[in-house]
Amino acid sequence: MTIDRNHILKLASLANLELSEEEVDTYILDVNKILGLFEKIADIDTEGIKPLSNVLEQFSESREDIPENTIDRDVALENAPDTDGVFYQVPPTIKHNKEIKNEEK
Which residues are paired to 60 by β-bridges? Predict the structure, then answer.
């Protein structure tokens, strides 16, 4: 697969990015180089090679995944600047696309 100007412009549109012509040209070259590297990797003969599960011969011991209550809820919420008694209350930090577009108008 070869990436062309239309692919880059479509991706930029989906990501809500504005790219200069120079940036579009740079991205076309860079993405095609990356895809070329993947093609080289795909061409490597791996017949008879066992899959590698770990690069080290050592494995770390894992604890059992058993849920535990390590701290009482009231104690956890003591230092919270704002709470409803059950959850932390925080101001919104992410705006929805509709809110952003309304602000631009």
Answer: none
Buried b (16+ CB within 10 A) or exposed e, 67-78: eeeeeeeeeebe
For residue 72, how far is the Cα from the chain centroid?
33
- Can you tell me the distance from the alpha carbon of 105 to that of 100, in angstroms, rounded to the nearest whole number? 9
Q: For the segment 12-51, what is each residue's pLDDT rounded down to a tens digit?
A: 999 999 999 999 999 999 999 999 999 999 999 999 988 8
pTM attached to this predicted model: 0.48
